[in-house]
């Protein structure tokens, strides 16, 4: 009997695939495998029998990779399995940072009075909540992995000019990756030219603080910034004054941060990018299949 410890709620469509040869629990000793979503594992003592950890998600920053490598523990993730879910939320954020949809809805809930009075107030709202269209605007996509490419494709069909850059790819490779990229750009091209910038790179020592004071100083006044990858990719201390002055017109993020809570032009979502039933099923199936294949056959995919 193989033993698998599950540190988060993982979709049963995945865990059911473990089958009769597996004991599976949220609390057990000496597991050979661990299934995890977002639980932070950095302070966890790694069990001696542990062979592999499978993350039902793309990022692996909640897993102590160096410690695992030293101990010969393989770490899997599920690239692409939740890409569509994240793409859809990024598109929603593109619209929401432009058209002030959320504050307008909140304001409309407060409207009181006769039909005529409400109509007058609505006229006021029309100018108070006006915002630009995205058609023809320049979108910079930093990071052209599974999610970045889907976002680039969708933005192009919405009539945006898409600039693409990936810190781990040459400009030529980035160009070839997505037919929807109008311009294979450098990061500076994106910072200086784009009306919207969306970040889709993993968090590691080379990307932490990627958008800091220097980068923000190069951006166009009124730029709208979207971060659905990891909070630490953006230096919030540097971002705050840029938001307050309006240089950054809006920041949409899937990672609420103390410093940004309550800031008017911040749209903070509680890490919902991958939270759709479809994506949770996809990630769970992929994570379980990889874990089993390694435990049973020693095969390694997406480690
Ligand atoms: C990811 O890295 O893909 C997401 O963090 C997944 C999740 O929401 O758990």
TrEMBL record:
Catalytic activity field: (2R)-3-phosphoglycerate + NAD(+) = 3-phosphooxypyruvate + NADH + H(+); (R)-2-hydroxyglutarate + NAD(+) = 2-oxoglutarate + NADH + H(+)
Presence of the UniProt keyword NAD in the record: yes
Keyword Cell wall biogenesis/degradation found: no
Pathway(s) per entry: Amino-acid biosynthesis; L-serine biosynthesis; L-serine from 3-phospho-D-glycerate: step 1/3
EC number: 1.1.1.399, 1.1.1.95
Keywords annotated in UniProt: NAD, Oxidoreductase
Enzyme class per UniProt: oxidoreductase
Known function: Catalyzes the reversible oxidation of 3-phospho-D-glycerate to 3-phosphonooxypyruvate, the first step of the phosphorylated L-serine biosynthesis pathway. Also catalyzes the reversible oxidation of 2-hydroxyglutarate to 2-oxoglutarate.
Family in the record: Belongs to the D-isomer specific 2-hydroxyacid dehydrogenase family.
Protein name: D-3-phosphoglycerate dehydrogenase
Organism of origin: Anaeromassilibacillus senegalensis
Range of the intact protein held here: 1 to 303 of 386
């Amino acid at each position: 009997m193989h033993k698998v410890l599950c540190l988060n709620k993982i979709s049963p469509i995945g865990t059911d695939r473990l089958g009769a040869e597996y004991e599976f629990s949220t609390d057990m000793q000496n597991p050979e495998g661990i299934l995890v979503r977002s639980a932070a594992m950095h302070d966890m003592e790694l069990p001696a029998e542990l062979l592999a950890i499978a993350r039902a998600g793309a990022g692996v920053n909640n897993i102590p990779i160096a410690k695992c490598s030293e101990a010969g523990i393989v770490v899997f993730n599920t690239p692409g399995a939740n890409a569509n879910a994240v793409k859809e939320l990024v598109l929603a954020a593109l619209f929401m940072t432009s058209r002030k949809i959320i504050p307008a809805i909140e304001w409309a809930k407060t409207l009181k009075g006769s039909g005529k009075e409400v109509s007058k107030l609505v006229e006021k709202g029309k100018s108070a909540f006006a915002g630009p269209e995205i058609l023809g605007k320049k979108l910079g996509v930093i990071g052209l992995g599974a999610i970045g490419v889907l976002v680039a494709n969708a933005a192009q069909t919405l009539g945006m000019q898409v600039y693409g850059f990936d810190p781990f790819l040459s400009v030529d490779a980035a160009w070839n990756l997505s037919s929807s990229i109008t311009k294979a750009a450098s990061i500076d091209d994106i910072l200086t030219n784009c009306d919207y910038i969306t970040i889709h790179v993993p968090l590691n020592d080379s990307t932490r603080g990627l958008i800091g004071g220097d980068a923000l100083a190069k951006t166009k006044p009124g730029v709208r910034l979207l971060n659905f990858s990891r909070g630490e990719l953006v230096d919030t201390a540097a971002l705050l004054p840029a938001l307050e002055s309006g240089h950054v017109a809006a920041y949409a993020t899937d990672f609420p941060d103390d410093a940004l809570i309550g800031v008017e032009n911040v749209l903070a979502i509680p890490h919902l990018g991958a939270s759709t039933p479809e994506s949770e099923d996809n990630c769970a199936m992929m994570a379980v299949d990889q874990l089993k294949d390694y435990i049973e056959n020693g095969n390694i995919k997406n480690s």
